[in-house]
Amino acid sequence: MNKPLRNMTIAFLLATGVLVSAHQAAAADPKPALTIAFAGYDQFIGSLKALDELSGHTKLAAKAEGNIELMTRGKGFAGLDKSRPWGILVSLGENDQPVVQGYLPVSDLKKLLASIPRPGGEVPAANADGVYEFPMGAKTVNVKQKGKWAVLSDNAETLNSAPADPTPAFADMTKSYLLSVRGSVQNIPEASRANFIKSLRGIVEFTLAMQQQSNSAEERALQSASIKQLFAKLETFSKELDSLVIGVGLDPSSKALFLDFEARGVEGTKLAQKFDAMKDAKTDFAGFDVPGAAMTLLTSGTSDDEDVADAKTTLANFKATANKMLDSNEQLGDKREMAKQLLGDLLDVAEKTVALKKGDGGMAVVLDDGPVVVFGTRIAAGAKLEGAIKKLVKELSADEPKLAKLVTFDAEKYEGINFHVAKIPIPDPKAAEVLGESVQIVVGLSDSSLYFGAGKDPIATIKKAIDASKAAPGKAINPVDLVISATPIAKFFAKVIQSDNPGDAQAKKNFTKAAALLAKSGGKDHITMTLKAIPHGATLRLNVESGVTKTILNLLPGNDSDDSDEK
Question: The dihedral of CA 497, 501, 504, 509: what is its sign?
Fold first, then answer.
């Protein structure tokens, strides 16, 4: 996995679990450990209206407001200030108890409570402190108006400590997102974080022990080493991860839907430094951003000495365990030593590649005349990898002579890359119409790069990518940049899906309609996933452009239209 993306994944795994267990912690500092922010009623309805305008015929906003009118018996949340945001703050108080405070913007709390139907009918009178009490199971929700806010809590005493204006705690979130959640890991005591990790490790180890009773000792040892390494990372992250944010929204100008995952490290820590290093991402594989491709991926990242040491430990553990497994495999017979040597060569290449401290690569899927998947990446000791592949095919061919006829070594050489080709016949006539009479699998190697391709004439696509990459060496990119183009995907499936049965016929119709809609989207037909560096952190954004959103809305059951785009 790309190193920055792996760090993001570990950060979210840690923070999610710590925040879920935050109620077990105690802290003198009342800063919120968890903040949930909603941009407000008007923003929500406005987003639905934007989607209605985009689709041209859905009535999402009208349906939402109609349901609210029905639920409130025509009162429509009277007393609620629909222009301002909502929020929930969870901080950690004394005696290991959470302090949970919810905030609703109101002009008149009593009117708002009266507009919400409840068992028993009328709203109970407020007590002498102006607090309304609503029993809910074993707990009681307490609500009190403070200025322009209704404050909710399951503890009446916390209402008095609630700020008169809570917006500074979540206003920055509501400016960027319709709905968002922020976890502030460092606002949870260190002892609580450590206890959570310890508990989680116990659960993981127990679960795996139950599942792996039939596994060999070597397999269990490898799994144990991996768990140890993972939780060592989690312990470091618990000390160096500052915050994370998950947010969803709709861009008002482009009408693109987006989902963000953001993580920040504590300033001055190694984690923050690793995030900061992401801003200098560069690639020598920019040519894999193939024009017209259904999907492209560019990725680049760096590693430090600690990352290299961790990777080498993992490889060494795997090699030791795998060799023991090979030694105990009676079916290999006299080929046991050969298998161990091949494994050693492959792991040696992996170790030398890790030592480069630089990950760099690209990938593309092209669906024009025939599907082709290609990728290229930086490696070390390519000649050794090439020798290992040739040796492996030779050994396999001794038992399966037909394999030797399918594989052509040194089939072609281009820009210092040796290409080796395997042609796999396609016996299914329908599949052959799409893929051709045979699928080519290509491996291209130089001492510093590896290329792979599969499909119809992948070498041609790889050559174009190589040429385009050489024209833009060291191109600055985002650490991860994935682009999926919906138009070529819809056209491809509309073409290849048969109409032999009703289910396939409907699928073909849907893809045909989607292709027509997307073709008129003005190029707004992409789904992208981009990892970008921010100060001491990174943001991973999943973005759905308006053409894709419109197509999805028009394909939803009950939302069919006579839109001329599909005619």
Answer: positive
* Rounded distance between C-alpha atoms, residue 441 and residue 422, angstroms: 5
CB 446 within 8 A of CB 464: no
Q: Decide if pLDDT at 249 tops 50.
A: yes
Instruction: Return the residue matching tokens 């759905």.
Output: 544
CA neighbours closer than 13 Å in the CB half-sphere of residue 148:
10
Q: What is the rounded distance in angstroms from the CA atom of residue 548 to the CA atom of residue 542?
A: 13
Per residue in 342-364, pLDDT tens?
999 999 999 999 999 999 999 99
Partners of 243 in beta bridges: 184, 264
Radius of gyration over every alpha carbon of the chain, rounded to an integer in angstroms: 29
Q: What is the mean pLDDT of residues 479-498?
A: 94
- Sign of the dihedral defined by the CA atoms of residues 318, 320, 323, 324, in that order: negative
Model pLDDT, residue 64: 94
Strand partners, 518: none
Neighbours of 237 (CB within 10 A): 24
Angstrom CA distances, 536 to 172, 246, 308, stand at 18, 17, 21
Place of tokens 């396609």: 426
Backbone angles phi, psi at 329, to 5 degrees: -90, 100
Strand partners, 278: none
Q: Looking at residue 139, what is its pLDDT?
A: 83
The token pair that represents 79 in the structure block: 């007393």
Q: Which of 180-189, 327-336, 467-476 has the lowest mean pLDDT?
A: 327-336
Q: If pLDDT is split at 50, 70 and 90, which confidence band does 365 have?
A: very high
**What is the end-to-end Cα distance of the chain in Å, rounded?**
44
Quick one: tokens of 130?
């102006």
User: Model pTM?
Assistant: 0.86
Q: Collect all residues with Cβ–Cβ distance below 8 Å to 39 and sequence separation of at least 6.
A: 85, 174, 177, 178, 179, 249
**CA 27/CA 37 separation, integer angstroms:** 23
Q: Tokens for 494?
A: 């509309």
CA distance 298 to 476: 11
Strand, coil or helix: 362: strand
Q: What are phi and psi of 403, to 5 degrees?
A: -60, -40
pLDDT for res 53: 93
Q: What is the pLDDT of residues 448-461, one digit of tens each?
A: 999 999 998 899 99
Residues whose CB is less than 8 angstroms from the CB of residue 84 and which lie 6 or more positions away in sequence, other chains included: 40, 105, 148, 167
Q: In Å, what is the CA distance from 295 to each residue of 218, 366, 373?
A: 39, 7, 9
For 249, the enclosing helix (H) or strand (E) is strand 241-250
Find, among 85, 93, 113, 89, the residue nearest to 102 by Cα: 89
Displacement of CA 456 from its chain's centroid (Å) = 30
Q: Cβ atoms within 10 A of the Cβ of 108, count?
A: 14
The pLDDT assigned to 380 comes to 97
